[in-house]
Design a protein that fits this description.
3 strands, mainly alpha, single chain, 189 residues
Length: 189
């Protein structure tokens, strides 16, 4: 028979969690989106040179590092912190860098694609905007536009798969949670 004092200690040592579903996760994503949009608007306004490759890569990488650093260091982004939710490993322990890196791998690829499109737009051999206005359909033959359309279609499919996983899993794991072997939880007190 277990000692009642020992049982009480175990309750304090092992916090109880609830798995977080769609709406709180969407709320956190929305708050993070507002924060990153403000950052992008401010940096775009302050950026002295719009076609500087180093600045494009630097500022294009901020959302990526935002997630990697905050999720690794605190187990949550600012949006998740505001809603009291966090990321944990399958063992309900703080995630390792490997968990966070794998969890964000899909978004790393999307971000890299976005940066590549930005670079192609700035440095690609495209005709002037006036030449394109004579036949608007020619716009769809430029490499940057084709890359952007492929990326947009890929992002749509990825988010659709993410939603299906999230809404059909009893622990609300989306695809990126499964890749990183993580849960999104709220601590019960």
């Amino acid at each position: 028979m277990e000692n009642p004092q020992e049982s009480l200690l175990n309750d304090f040592e092992q916090p109880s969690y609830t798995f977080v579903g769609f709406w709180p996760r969407f709320g956190a994503l929305f708050l993070d989106g507002i924060l990153l949009t403000v950052f992008n608007l401010v940096t775009d306004w302050m950026m002295p040179e719009k076609n500087n490759l180093a600045l494009i890569v630097l500022f294009g990488s901020v959302p990526l590092f935002y997630h990697l650093i905050l999720e690794y260091r605190y187990g949550a982004t600012v949006g998740k912190m505001a809603l009291g939710i966090r990321i944990v490993s399958y063992e309900l322990m703080p995630p390792t860098f490997q968990h966070i890196f794998l969890r964000n791998l899909i978004y790393l690829a999307i971000q890299a694609g976005g940066i590549a499109i930005e670079i192609q737009t700035m440095y690609g051999n495209s005709e002037s905007q006036l030449d394109m206005m004579s036949n608007p359909m020619d716009l769809f033959s430029t490499p940057a536009v084709v890359m952007a359309l492929v990326l947009a279609a890929s992002v749509f499919v990825i988010y659709l798969i993410e939603m299906i996983f999230l809404l059909t899993d009893e622990k609300y794991r989306s695809l990126h949670d499964r890749i990183g072997k993580t849960y999104v939880v709220k601590k019960r007190f």
